[in-house]
Write a structure and sequence with these properties.
By secondary structure, the protein is of the alpha+beta class. It contains twelve helices and eight strands. The protein has a four-stranded antiparallel beta sheet. It has a two-stranded antiparallel sheet with strand order 2-5. The protein has a two-stranded antiparallel ribbon with strand order 3-4. The protein starts with 5 loop residues before the first helix and ends with a helix.
């Protein structure tokens, strides 16, 4: 594989016996500490309030209203207006007639007085009144816990100590790895204003709403607040201003509780088997890396030669058994033993023959020199 790490190639090329010895004598310990803190600044609430407040202003400037008739029986001299309804009432209640004059004029002692007043106490107005009060409470809650910027702090520290041994060679490692992430980003800037400036401006605009006649009138009457579910009147459903107001209403209802947007997590890990194994593997790979420096690839130490001989012998025996699966074990041992004896004797005979021929050549050369004379 083209992207295979060099250290992996080094690992694959290392003799398995050496890896086994390293791992068999390996002793190690580690600790992994994590300190995580994330602060998320969310200004969705500020955006939606800023975008909606103009529609609330439109509603309060053109409020829904109705005429209220307040009826009361008063003395004639206290009556402000004599209306048709007053005459009709007097005709039904003749006991309020004091006297009838000769010319037919009727002189009542008391009469019905009707005061006609405009009232803002409609369901739709009370809905907006309640919404503005909810906004005020929501803004106060956010202001107490205002997070003006997003922050992230993530620190991880790993300490690892390990020792191992391969024959007379002792290996040890003391390792510390640290990872740090730290940033602070200012959020919530809009139209050149930072979150604090936007908040102050929003509070001022909400205050303007509370000074409008509709709100003041409903506050004086101590009208009951509207509670969910909301009645879907034609005005609420079809009026654009109320449609935006209801989006803000739903948002506040869904986010009524404060979420501090701060996440913290501290951990100390010392017993994770998988992490421990990976760190042990890292120790091994570091060892193999330093051992690859200035290494003569053609040079084999005693252990390597012994391992090579063992590997070749095992492969040879496996092949013999594979080709002679029906032979008894005693017969296979006999064949291998005889073959080894023949090869060994052959090697010894070959060496003796070479030695004899070498000595003959040396003797002949010495004799030739002795017989030589200068003329």
């Amino acid at each position: 594989m083209q992207n295979e790490l060099k250290v992996v190639q080094l690992y694959n090329a290392t003799r398995s016996k050496k890896l086994t010895k390293f791992n068999a004598s390996l002793k190690s310990q580690y600790s992994l500490a994590s300190n995580y803190e994330k602060v998320e600044a969310d200004f969705t609430w500020l955006d939606i309030m800023e975008d909606t407040i103009m529609y609330l202003d439109n509603i309060l400037r053109n409020p829904n209203r109705f005429i209220v008739n307040e009826e009361e029986i008063v003395k004639v001299e206290q009556a402000r207006r004599i209306t048709v309804e007053s005459i009709k009432h007097l005709a039904k209640h003749t006991n309020f007639i004091q006297e009838i004059e000769d010319n037919g004029d009727v002189k009542p002692s008391k009469i019905l007085n009707i005061n006609k007043d405009e009232s803002y106490n409609t369901y739709e107005n009370r809905l907006i009144y309640t919404l503005i009060n909810n906004m005020k409470l929501f803004i106060e809650m956010k202001e107490r816990n205002l997070v003006s910027s997003s922050k992230l702090k993530d620190v991880k520290t790993c300490e690892y100590n390990g020792v191992s041994k391969i024959g007379a060679e002792k290996i040890n490692i003391n390792m510390v790895i640290t990872s740090k992430t730290n940033y602070d980003k200012e959020d919530g800037i809009r139209n050149g204003m930072n979150p604090m400036q936007r908040l102050e401006r929003l509070k001022l605009r909400v205050s303007d709403l509370t000074n409008m006649p509709v709100y003041v009138s409903l506050a004086k009457e101590h009208v009951a607040r509207v509670i969910p579910p909301i009645k879907k009147t034609n005005l609420i459903l079809k009026n654009v201003n109320f449609q935006y107001a209801m989006k803000l209403w739903d948002f506040i209802q869904a986010n009524a509780t404060y979420d501090n947007n701060v996440k913290k997590d501290k951990k100390l890990i010392e017993d994770n088997v998988e992490i421990h194994q990976m760190l042990d593997d890292t120790f091994l790979l570091n060892y193999l890396t330093i051992m690859s420096i200035n290494k003569d690839e053609g040079e084999l130490d005693v252990d390597a030669k012994t391992e090579m001989v063992e590997d070749l012998t095992n492969k040879m025996i496996d092949k013999i058994i594979e080709l002679n699966a029906d032979l008894p074990i005693e017969k296979i041992q006999e064949v291998i033993g005889d073959k080894l004896a023949v090869i060994k004797n052959k090697n010894e005979a070959t060496l003796a023959e070479l030695e004899r021929k070498f000595n003959d050549k040396i003797d002949a050369y010495v004799n030739k020199i002795t017989e030589f004379s200068f003329r």
